[in-house]
Amino acid sequence: MSDGYVRTTTEGGIATVTFHHPKSNSLPAAILGEMAKQISTAGADKTVRAIILRSDGEKAFCAGASFDELVAIETEAQGLTFFNGFANVINAIRTVPCFVLGRVQNKAVGGGVGLAAAVDVCYAHASASVKLSELAIGIGPFVVGPAVERKTGTNAFGFMTSTPATWRSAEWALRNGLYVEVFAEQQALETAIQKHATELAGYSPEAMAELKRVMWKGPEDWGKLLPECAAISGRLVLSDFTRNAIAAFKAK
User: Fold this and answer.
1) Would you give the DSSP letter of residue 65?
2) Model-level pTM greater than 0.70?
């Protein structure tokens, strides 16, 4: 990919999947596809005992869906294909047999919040505020919503999605179950996630696979549900409201 990348490094039983895009780590289809592929590949590697999902850079962890690709969608089929990229990443995280740890170093928006919710354990920096902004552009967090609601509960999820212009602090996300720990220093964040991954690398892969399966009991239908949610977004993104909202945002 000439515009962003996804890279995986493996050491000591830990696979680190890193994504980057020059526009605030936004997520075009190519990056979503590579993320799903590389997470699944790491999970299939019998030497891998833990996966860390992170983005490069000190600024935004992830700005969500690529606006450039959203405005380029011309049919419902194209919309389904694009939003299904988020479904594939979430389902890859859900189905790999090892724990996936998330490292959120700064703000997360929309699909970025979905990534933070989808991982099994998410660590964050104090600057890692969150916002589900989709309703403001005429769609909704349909694909990432089940993952977010699973972590935060219906009340907090409903609050976030119905206030799309409002940032919620990292402490708010911690209190509502999205994060497990929040750190004032970036180095402390790095140390904590590496320590946890190293600990997991010493445990029984069979036991962890069974534990992962038990922890994800309930969302087994997400292979069908999330693509159905992607179809809703794929239809709504074609509306005049969405076209105008994205154009106004890009003009700022």
Assistant:
1) B
2) yes
Start-to-end CA distance of the chain, whole Å, equals 28
The string of DSSP codes covering 169-191 is -HHHHHHTTS-SEEESSHHHHHH
Q: How many CA atoms lie within 13 A of 125 on its CB side?
A: 20
Strands 108-109 and 50-55: unpaired
pLDDT digits (tens, 9 = 90+) for 63-85: 999 998 998 999 999 999 999 99
Q: How many whole angstroms separate alpha carbon 169 and alpha carbon 20?
A: 23
Q: Is residue 103 part of a domain?
A: yes
Whole-angstrom distance, CA of residue 118 vs CA of residue 105 = 16
Judge whether residue 1 has pLDDT over 70: no
Q: How many residues in total does the chain contain?
A: 252
Q: Please count the structural domains in the chain.
A: 1
CB atoms within 10 A of CB 31: 23
Q: Is 93 left (phi over 0), alpha (psi -120 to 50) or beta?
A: alpha
Condensed to tens digits (0 to 9), the pLDDT of residues 27-37 reads 999 999 999 99
Q: What CATH number does residue 14 fall under?
A: 3.90.226.10
